[in-house]
Amino acid sequence: xYCNQPPEKxxxxxxxxxxxxxMARANSLWVTAYGTGCGSIELRPLGTSRFDMERFGIAMRPxxxxxxxxxxxxxxxxxxxxxxxxxxxxxQDPKYIIAxxxxxxxxxxxxxxYNTLNxxxxxxxxxxxxxxxxxxxxxxxxxxxxxxxxxxxGRAHGWKHYKENLDYYRENQKKIITDWDLPDYNW
Amino acid sequence: xxxxxxxxxEIRFPLYKLVREQHNYLHVKVDMVSAxxxxxxxxxxxxxxxxxxxxxxDRIEDGVFQITWILENYGACTVLLISADFPRENCLVPSxxxxxxxxxxxxxxxxxMYGISFPGNPREGEDFLLESxxxxxxxxxDFETEEYAxxxxxxxxxxxxxDPRQYVGDIVGEWNTPMGRKRKEEK
Amino acid sequence: xxxxxxxxxxxxxxxxxxxxxxGGISRSVTARIHGRMGPRVTQNFxxxxxxxxxxxxxxxxxxxxMAPMFRITGAICVLIMVPLVVGQNITYNMSFAGDxxxxxYIMFFGCLGMxxxxxxxxxxxxxxxxxxxxxxxxxxxLSFSIAVVAIAVGLHTFKIEGIVAAQQAGxxxxxxxxxxxxxxGALLAFLPMQMAYPxxxxxxxxxxxxxxxxxxxxxxxxxxxxxxxxxxxxxxxxFVSLLFGGASSWLGLFVKTFLxxxxxxxxxxxxxxxxxxxxxxxxxxxxxxxxxVDLVRVML
Amino acid sequence: MGVNPATDPKKTTHLFFGPQHPxxxxxxxxxxxxxxxxITKAITHVGYLHRGFEKLMEKRLWIQNFPLVxxxxxxxxxxxxxxxxxxxxxLTGIEVPERAKWIRTLVLELARLAVNLMAFxxxxxxxxxxxxxxxxxxxxxxxxxxxxELTGARIYHxxxxxxxxxxxLPQGFGGRVEKVLEKIxxxxxxxxxxxxxxxxxxxxxxxxxxxxxxxxxxxGLVGPVARGSGSVRDVRKxxxxxxxxxxxxxxxxxxxxxIFARVMVRRREMDLxxxxxxxxxxxxxxxxxxxxxxxxxxxxxxAGEVYSRVESSRGEYGYYVVSDGSLKPRRVHVxxxxxxxxxxxxxxxxxxxxxxxxxxxMVSLTTCPxxxxx
Amino acid sequence: xxxxDVISPFLAWSRAAKKVDTIPYPNQQNPGADRYRGFHINxxxxxxxxxxxxxxxxxxxxxMVKVEGVDPAKGDSGLRPVVDYGRCCWCALCIDVCSTGSxxxxxxxxxxTENPDTCRYTPxxxxxxxxxxxxxxxxxxxxxxxAGSPREQMEIETPEKRIENFDEVVKGYTIDQAMEEAxxxxxCGLCISACPAHMHIPDYLKAIAEGRFVDAVKLFYDNNPxxxxxxxxxxxxxxxxxxxxxxxxxIAIRWLKRFACEQFESLADVLALDAQPGxxxxxxxxxxxxxxxxxxxxxxxxxxGYEVHVYDRLEKGGxxxxxxIPEYRLPADGISKQMEVFEQAGVIFNYGKDVTKELLTDxxxxxxxxxxxxxxxxxxxARIEGEDISEVKPAFDFLxxxxxxxxxxxxxxxxxxxxxNVAMDAARxxxxxxxxxxxxxxxxxxxxxxxxxxxxxxxxxTIDFRPKTIPIRxxxxxxxxxxxxxxxxxxxxxxxxxxxxxxxxxxxxxVDADILFSAIxxxxxxxxxxxxxxxxxxxxWGRIIVNESQYTGxxxxxxxxxxTPGEGDAITAIADGLRAVQGIIDRLR
Lengths: 187, 187, 300, 374, 589
Description:
The complex is a heteropentamer of chains A (187), B (187), C (300), D (374) and E (589).
Chain B: H1 2-12, E1 17-22, E2 25-30, H2 35-44, E3 50-59, E4 64-73, E5 78-87, H3 103-114, H4 145-152, H5 164-172, H6 180-186
Parallel strand pairs in B: 2-5
Antiparallel strand pairs in B: 1-2, 3-4, 4-5
Chain C: H1 2-34, H2 43-52, H3 62-81, H4 100-119, H5 124-155, H6 160-165, H7 175-178, H8 180-193, H9 218-243, H10 250-268, H11 276-299
Chain D: E1 13-17, E2 29-35, E3 38-45, H1 53-58, H2 66-69, H3 78-92, H4 98-126, H5 130-151, E4 160-161, E5 164-165, H6 173-195, H7 199-205, H8 213-220, H9 223-227, H10 235-238, H11 259-283, E6 304-312, E7 315-323, E8 329-335, H12 338-350, H13 358-364, H14 369-373
Antiparallel strand pairs in D: 1-2, 2-3, 4-5, 6-7, 7-8
Helix pairs in contact in D: 4-5, 4-11, 4-13, 5-6
């Protein structure tokens, strides 16, 4: 039913309304509470009193259905990738991915590991990369600022790209996840 | 304290090999047939009744897996390591999961990582760290992790790399000497 | 009739704004005890707008869609049946139409509809949360009902208008002083009603993320949030009317509802959650007993 | 064919708890079957963070493994460095200068303090007491500031190395440590009042998540989990490393067996750490902080096998290091305390528990998935 | 349940009235700590491109690449590190091992991007916002010693003992010491660019470190047929560019070469099949002069199958380097050990042949090619008044027949003029013969061309150094001679270059002595070359100018060693020989 239909192509919205909406989107980024890697240790100071990301309207949501942002906090093991794809596809549009750390860019420390993937954007569309291992909370805030800027400018189109190039992403994903047992579309 | 343990081994397993000895630390090596007896003896009569770790070393050049059981005596705070070599082909090692419930997890991991089977472990074969792994068990020495990673995961950009030693040699003409050309070919 | 409709619309809109604003303020206040700066006060509006304008939204059939509607309907019914400000007829809306039992029924109906819808999402966490929530609701509704009955019997009127009118003789005539035990019971029941800790077993992110709304997203969630805001304000107004003498002016209304809203916030920030059976045991014994004391007193 | 009553689909609900779940400590999951509210069977699933550390270590030089090992345990990286460095020192016979030993102990205790603060606050957080989690993690951040100043990084310090530490203490560091300790000491009572003197917190933790004393030896439990059940085992006391034999302290132990006892152990460990840090700062000797190492890229560690142990905030932490005399280790096996805590023990403890207590129990064991999976 | 347990949590609300803990980050910047491991910077002018950072990086995050604007030079590979932040883990191992300390971390920590392909950059070359950051993680080699370490110290005879005899001063490494010293090598290969003969230094150091001494010797013989000599008296330009020398002490490449050779009684046996004459190709080459240059040309030509005849006026092979260097630096035993290799390689020696015009004409006719490597024969004039006194002698002549080779020293008080290795050798030889020695040099001690070690050892051996002395004249006195000089001050050279010594005042200082050796260099003497040949060659200041393959321009004549302009040391001479071999092979093809 809802999870077996091909995704609908995003249409154009009215300019002004879209602008206001983008402002709202930028100032209300809800993050899926999924610590995929070691970077999530720096999300705790970020979420708590010391750096307090709620100042920017960023909040943790326990369920992907209600979130806008997925933070890939560092390396992804192949076993996690499967869950992350599931989580990402459960997030409702528009949705964004922030990737933390070297591991997401080119493998980082684990470039030669048999169980972690090296180039994240082959499998999921990434909007913002934050350099560091681990990035400090301040750097993550800067990452969010860049994402906000992108949303306000209407450039944060990773999710559209994912839908339009679903076949490409699926092919790459299935190359790694040999026992693919997810539905073909699950949003 | 450790002397008592050592005496125990001298009496029961006169052929044991002493690897390392300290005031609260003893590492002995026995043959594969008496390994189980040694562990049971350590647990029942030598006071080393806590299993800390089961570890494996792939000694591929000797064609054996060296299994090491690390047992502790909580009262005296001494460590006893018992090692034994098992042939690498169709490796079967007796399971301790009936004696220590914690052993089951260690044995599941070793089965996954080395392909060593522990007959008697009821949960053997359940996915532990890996998911649907089809290649050589990854911790074996003959599994090349970097090659695997590059083949399966790839990298962002190919490495553009110049070895300074070769480069300097080439530009100054290190190999242009009468005998040098031959040497370079050898290299 | 037209004036009535527009005043109803204004009431709903105002209640929504006030509810969201209260939510924002409570987030800021909670942030203070955490030792942090906290979000903007308007954050809830931004969130709501964003959710409303998300481009995709999954649903799990008609019941699923109905759930927030049930709640919004319940909230609106309560809002229009309770007089907002005493003496200003325009705020009376339809208060002539109901008595407190109808109100209690409508409140229960809203939650029940919510439970039905959320249960229909098929997510095990939502199902667990619904079962927890209904179990808890049955216990706090009991104490709340007994308290209301005690007050109503004591004041010899079941009309909310009458209850409000009976409290207009100065601060000592407020029901909270006239029926202290029933009020205490009702106020304790107010905590689970607002899903405040230690009774927040329904929305327990660390246990059953995040309970009934697990599967709700985008527009559905924005309805859910507005429903919650409306319902929150409705409950506040109901409690103000029942226990705190209603509001004799707009300022009084805002102050009273604000203070009442802060009460669960204060408790919530310093207590962890009960387990389900602990919560129910607590609600069955303490508030119910308290309310019963007053009921018995009134009856005798 | 008989149906296992624990997983009978007619009687039980099948539920996955994690890995995308705010109540799980890190990236792991528990598969559960429960009957009503009671869990009848639980299976821990790990491997979401498996990076193949042990394989990678075999492919890297001895010194190159230091950036790797610290990533095995994210909240408390220093114990890994310490344990690995101790193993190498044992194999090579490299002497550690006296001052370096003191600095190492200082670092280890600061890290223990930091991780206990987080775990203490986190225990409240998992029950919905967000304030406690906020405070605990904020206090931890004060300690991280010290680490940043000392080692140059907040999380992965890569500070301890064979034969000493990488840098001397900065000027006036001791004073700043003292300042932070005072700040934390001043605010800890607030946290105590919020968490330990909280009726509902007690209700939720007392007599919940019981670890029976006889399980300690059966499963090989260590650290606060064992000490909360009356054990007095602490590697710092039993097999002192670095300069623990020169410090005065008593092993913290509680006999409640339940979550509250473990929380109390952690709380008292914080006091212990603070007192140890004060002792270290007052007695810190002068001198060099590192022994010169040979050319790092040509460094061969003599062949041998050694099992080294340190006491982490979660209990005994062991490294089984095998060298074949080459440039790279032959085998490094990391034995993290979470291994038995999160897999066999958790599976056992969850049976009969209430679904509401799953993350409560998990956090009280402070399971750290990266050290299980490596 | 206690009642206080219900009340006490509410006390937490007191926190709400207090100051918040939040750092309002983007509004208030929060700089990293002084030691923060932020982003890389590299001082490209200091960087030598040794690639140490690349080797130590466990993530393969650092690659050495060619960079525009940085050219390879002696001691600088011209490569610079590129850092891939898709790999980096900020462990700072690269910082701590950087041999020059040019690589560092700043305390910036914030870099966000949309484009992951921009994460690779060359610090110091690509402009980045943090390039001018002052603070950050810096190398501290005093603590770690990873970027440079002290040398393995070998045993050196005490000055008191060593002036009593002609035994070697430096004892040489033990096997363990040598292996540890060789293991300090970081295999960067910069030394190859500095060594005139481009020896395979990293390879043989690795061989020594791994205990493969035979391989090491074989590697020596690839580019240098006189390794033992070079192992003792080489000017070791390799060590001056050694990457380990920037923060520590350079690797004792020379001593290790010596060590490897000394491990074997006979080098000929070690080389065995590697030092055999090549397949004869029927061509004949004459080599004039059996010095380092001539010998290396002869060796490789022979190995390539040429029939090689070596002519020398002395009775033994080895040339001046051998004859003139005293025993305590280079014992004579080594000569025959190395000469065996040449004989095994099929080189034919003709000793005692004075190099004359007739000989050259004869060789021109009989051989396909001739290699002239006759070196410098004539001592320079000191150009001091009174230098024709018979007690004033060239130090070079004295050393050629020095007492260890049979000559006696007449007199007890000796003056040596000069600051080169010859001066040091003469002075130290005289000390060993029981004389009091005064050494006079025009410039400062740091300007002396001699090896630092030589100067240092000479100073230990009670030699009276008188730097900054300008000779005036030498007078004969009743008992001997008197040497008069001005004290000098250094003034800047208007043409640039080294400062010039000028007399400080008019005071004449005097030293009495029995004998004076002047060691101010040798000049060439090309009178032995027939005029017809001289016309075909290009000459300048008595030296033969050759092209890059040592070809003189006259028929099949090649020249090398000191007779051609150059550094004037043994290893350059050997390098000349190597080039000549290539030139001859190409020309005779």
